[in-house]
Amino acid sequence: MRIASSFAVVALGASFALAGCIADTSDPEPLDGEGSAQEDVGEAAAALGSCYGASCTEQDPGATGCEADAVTRASSDILSGTTAIGKIVIRYSPSCNAAWARTVVTSGSSYLRAEITRSSPYATSQAESTSPTDALRSAMLAVTPGSRFTAIGKIGSNPGIFQFSGTVRTNF
Predict the structure, then answer these.
(1) Residue 89, strand partner residues
(2) Judging by beta carbons within 10 Å of its beta carbon (0-12, 13-18, 19+), is residue 165 exposed, middle or buried?
(3) What is the CATH number of domain 49-171?
(4) d(CA 98, CA 61)
(5) Measured between alpha carbons, how far is 89 from 153 in angstroms, rounded to an integer?
(6) What is the rounded average pLDDT of the residues 152-171?
(7) Where is the secretion signal located (predicted)?
(8) pLDDT tens readout for residues 6-59
(9) Sequence-distant (≥ 6) Cβ neighbours of residue 111 within 8 angstroms
(10) Would you give the end-to-end CA distance of the chain in angstroms?
(11) How far is the C-alpha of 47 from the C-alpha of 12, rounded, in Å?
(12) Using H for helix, E for strand and C for coil, what is the string for 59-76?
């Protein structure tokens, strides 16, 4: 008797669950027109950064949201002799079409400098820490077709005095 009543409860529950799935025919997301998936993708991309191209120049990639979809385009170790003590990287945001330099120390914190230069049209941006830190990024520069970017990262034990540096380059 118990097995039969348990089976009936399970079967009845499954029927209600199936009926609920069949009965819900509403489509909350239209396939085209206003509110379409294509429009949602465009809005999501715009939400990543509050600037694009030239309007990003000299802006902070974190404050503008450009860092959200950033990729590393090139990187190089910063060496003390043969030991890597940090990295210099060129970061690029596709949604903002802008690049910046980022200097990182491998362990601890130091005084840092991050500098990026675009070849054409020529532009440069730099940042220097006023206290020891573990990472520092420059402001952004707009990416222009065919331009070459060079980033220089520096690490030092005192403000403005950098004993170690590294350079990296990439083309867009």
Answers:
(1) 75, 102
(2) middle
(3) 2.60.40
(4) 9
(5) 8
(6) 96
(7) 1-19
(8) 434 434 344 433 344 333 333 333 333 333 333 333 344 445 689 999 999 999
(9) 128, 129, 131, 132, 133, 155, 156, 157, 158, 159, 160, 161, 162
(10) 75
(11) 46
(12) CCHHHHCHHHHCEEEEEE
- Residue written as token pair 């910046």: 100
Q: Phi and psi for 95 in degrees, rounded to 5?
A: -70, -25
Q: Which residues pair with 118 in a beta bridge?
A: 123, 149
| Amino acid identity at 139 | A
Mean pLDDT on 126-143: 97
pLDDT at 47: 53
136 bridge partner residues: 103
> Measured between alpha carbons, how far is 106 from 128 in angstroms, rounded to an integer?
18
What is the C-alpha separation between 92 and 68, in angstroms, rounded? 10
- Tokens 């690490």: give the residue: 155
